[in-house]
Amino acid sequence: MPDALTLGFVPFAAPAKGVFVVFCGEGLKLGPATAKALGATAGLVARAGKAERFTGKSGSSLELVMPAGLKAGRLIVIGVGKAADLQPRDFVKFGGIAMGKLPTSAREACVFAEMPRGRMSAEQAAELAQGVRLRAYAFDRYKTKRKEDETPPARRSVTIAAADAAAARKADGPRAAVTEGVLLARDLVNEPANVLYPAEFARRAGELKKLGVGIEVLDMRAMKKLGMNALLGVGQGSRHDSRVVVMRWNGGRKSEAPVAFIGKGVCFDTGGISIKPAGGMEDMKGDMAGAACVTGLMRALAGRKAKVNAVGIIGLVENMPDGNAQRPGDIVKSMSGQTIEIINTDAEGRLVLADVIWYAAQRFKPKFMIDLATLTGAIIVALGHQHAGMFCNNDDLANRITKAGLAAGETVWRMPLGPEYDKQIDSKFADMKNTGSGRFGGAITAAQFIKRFVDDKMPWAHLDIAGTGFDSRQNDVNKSWGSGWGVRLLDRLVADHYEKK
Fold it and tell me: Is there a smaller number of Cβ atoms within 10 Å at the N or the C end of the chain?
């Protein structure tokens, strides 16, 4: 969220200036408090709606400049469709829509927290505010010139008019912390690789100490001592040394096992010796979106003081071609002791995860492990940009992730695992090879590779976020290239099932 945006809560009332945003249902149905705040202007809305063929369809809007009967300089009416069709996650969405409808030049705005059926609860008003904050985000720190109509005012103020402003303000606190986690993840993904290399990523993750997160950084010497040769092999062609960052939030009982989140952090991926085509390679600055999500999640949990013990571990590397780079045909011994034949150096993320997942399980013995990685183009072929691919060895965990994703609007689709796919990564020269046979089922064979580093008794899920972590389909709460996908989903998972009540 830009520093220029401030957001607060006020009691129900029409604003004295700025932009006034209200919601209506089909047939221009207004809530009672909204109709009261508009007064005689409600009739003007009805006439203008008829002239503009605005009926209150979900996501549509009607704009009136200098509306008679209101002190506000502009009135924006946003349609929400049939009231009976509203879902809990829609309040975040409509907050984003409201922010998106504001003119770039608007300095002040008031969003009325009422739907056609009546007043929003404090929690719903807070979710509306979350949508405003998420939509307000822009990554433009490197722009030195802008067109005049693209330049927002130095300060922007948005207030949410709520039935109980104090209760909404209280409900907003945890959601604002989660939003900050999402925006941190977006920042990390959007940064160019010449700025955000492994050591710098580790430094930024270290800033979470201010929130009470325990930080430990494993350098090259520590990783070599642990035997993290799969991870180290990926980064050996880069001038930037690799890192592993361990983030710990202890908000639960002292003796309670933590929940664990592991992120792939390839700060730039050329493909290594198996170099990628030049076209679109610039997008590979986002190949650390899994690590960004885990860092943002730890920011969210600490920010809202979640009553859970959680550990986030990210493997940070660069995959570069060099005289010292890993070669196809090389064999490395992972931290687990299993050996891996490198068939394709562009299948590097799974090598990073292999060591970090093993390390997480052995050291922390968590309740479950979830890893996130922009791992395969194959998952985009299968699912597009609408869902992340989920591979899981535990039905209860899979169902909980699915439900959390639906609630947060960050959806997953469960994909298969099985011995038939596993055979495809057997190697003639080592315990396994790092790619499957042929081009089919690539996301599945990648998941099968990771699964070889997970004890079958440990609940584990792998989320392939190649289609959602960056350059994904933009929506009402995100217009950024880096999406911050996964932070809200995993925070919801923790809040619903793993926090001490």
Answer: C
A 10 A CB-CB count for 195 gives 12
CA atoms within 13 A on the CB side of 484: 31
User: Which of these, 408, 404, 415, lies nearest to 462 by C-alpha position?
Assistant: 415
Between CA 205 and CA 298 the distance in angstroms is 9
Select which of 248, 285, 350, 433 is catalytic: 350
| 47 tagged catalytic | no
Phi, psi of 224 (to 5 degrees): -65, -40
pTM exceeding the 0.90 threshold for the entire prediction: yes
Considering only CA atoms, which of 349, 370, 331 is closest in space to residue 454? 370
CA distances from residue 111 to 135, 139, 160, 161, 162 in whole angstroms, order as listed: 14, 24, 5, 6, 9
- What is the H or E stretch that residue 446 is in? helix 442-451
- pLDDT one-digit tens code per residue, 225-272: 999 999 999 999 999 999 999 999 999 999 999 999 999 999 999 999
Instruction: Tell me which of 17, 117, 204, 276 is the catalytic residue.
Output: 276
- Would you state the pLDDT for residue 149? 62
C-alpha triplet 195, 467, 495: angle, nearest 5°: 85
- Residue 51 tokens, joined: 């002239």
Q: Is residue 350 annotated as part of the catalytic site, yes or no?
A: yes
Using CB atoms within 10 A of its CB, is residue 221 exposed (0-12), middle (13-18) or buried (19+)? exposed
Measure the CA–CA gap between 85 and 75, rounded to whole angstroms.
25
